[in-house]
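Lab manual, section 2.4: Encoding a predicted structure.

Procedure: take the sequence of the chain (622 residues), apply the prediction step described in section 2.3, and record the output as structure tokens. A sample record is shown.
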Amino acid sequence: MKNLYLAAAASCALATPALAQQADQITVIATGSPSRIDQTGQPITVLTAADLARLQGPDITRALEQVPGLTLSRNGGPGAFTGVRLRGSDSEQVLVLIDGVRVEDVAAPGAGFDFGTLTTGGIERIDVLRGSNSVTWGSAALGGVIAIQTRELNGYEASAEGGSRGSFAGEAAAGLAREKYALSLTGGYTTTDGVSAAAVGTEADGARQWHFGGKARLDLAPGLSFVANARYADTRTEIDGYPAPNYTFADTPEYQTTRQASGRADLRYEGAWLTLNTGFALSDTKRDYYDPTFGPNGGTAPSYGYRGRSHRADLTGRATLPANFALDFGADSEWTRYSGTFDARQTARQTSGHMMLGWYTDAISLAAGLRYDDHSRFGNATTLGANGTVRLAPNLRLRASYGEGFKAPTLFQLLSDYGNAALQPERSRSYDAGLEYKSGPVTAAVTVYRRDSRNLIAFVSCFGQTSAICTNRPFGTYDNVGKARAEGAEAELTLRPTARFTLRSLYTYTKARNLTPGTAQFGNDLARRPRHALTLSGDWETPLAGFALGADLRLISQSFDNASNTVRLPGGPVATLRASLPLHDRVTLYARVENVFDNRLPTAAGYSAVGRGAFAGLRVRY
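Recorded output:
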């Protein structure tokens, strides 16, 4: 019997990123158990390995820009810290999973995930859920969820590319997949001379990473299987700092190293009316900062650093009930800890349970659920959610969802020298509704959405303050002081006039504002949230021996870099041209030119942006 969890990893092999809404497409991101995408009212986009190969290159952000409602900010060139936002959320309010492991950096102040440490190598698919969904996923899913799955391979494949700024990326994977068992191994190395992190700098700040991982599956009995995965990445990124005597952001020889290790082991059962998945996951991040001109042992030892770790045990399942009903359920317990050069080790525990009852048919599907979380530091939180979809006509579907989200305060925010042990979780309510149309060569969708957030945690300066919250916190602390609203619309269109030509377009309008009463920033745009984002992508397979041409255009509007809306970030277009040529049925030559117009658009004030670059590579599959 084909395992449904494996189907979730493979069924979207031919999906288009604009609208992954066909009946045979399976995802686990909606309910935590394998389910059909067209039977959920939640907005989900799927990017596949074919999409990543088509777009080329190790930079995963170029693929993520094919998702409506998604924007990003990066502190310099490739390898620099990169945050991803969904529908105007903070980057720390997007939950990221790799092979089912929550990979947020629990030692970082906001506990977000740095996409600058992740490349496209070995990825099978990326599922993106837009909107709050803490009923299924718990803490951090205020803006949405990004679930990344690595591939199970039968055979081998390898790729290598080089290009501008001394860039090189090499990937290799090999595996054996049979009905009863499978084993896959992947590894890769990327390096680039990069660009100056500081906009005023002249020396290049490079980055390098090597990573490896593996997946294994063993069928123990009919319907019962053991699945395990592991990932390790070692990244070194050159950064800039604030050198004497001016102490302004400029060139320095500083750099940081990041070591990430994660893994998960599962037992999965698939029966006639019940599916179960129970497992244990571990995620560990160690980040160190070095200054060769000043620091321990002449700069050869870290100036400072921190380490975060989480252990998580969970159980999820689905019970198929009579009359097209199904009950999705789950329970988990997570233990987190962090420590730093200047912070003693701190720990927390969070235990949760959830359930969602749904009625699923081809014409109408409805679901509603709730979640209860108990946290050892702040207490408890209850979260609700509901969604539904109705087929209005053979080619037209209406969907809508309501989701609540919460994000537990981080250990740094609670217990560091800047901590506030009285913090409560950030909360959100998210609403969206949309229409989807699919007929022959045309696929289209439009969605409107709104998310209201409260209890947002912000850093409060205690300079010159005598209020109670500043007691023993002379440099500042954290407090629940913020409210915000993000609202807007998303439009998607895919045209396939011939079997050889595809045109995709994505447009997002996001109005994300600060609604904190009594502040000078009330009504201002939230920082680094462009109101308009447009992505156009076209691909043409010519009649000339499989020679293919493609182009991508990303156009964003201006935004503000600060809460007071006094510092602007520029907008404009960034275009990429792509080409590929099969040299053999198993060998493909490819090339691209990124940022054709050399339009450098920084996404964080004071930092540089990458200009025009040319790259070429070779891909082998067997």
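Check your result against the sample. The chain has one domain: 4-172+179-220+236-243+251-299+312-621.
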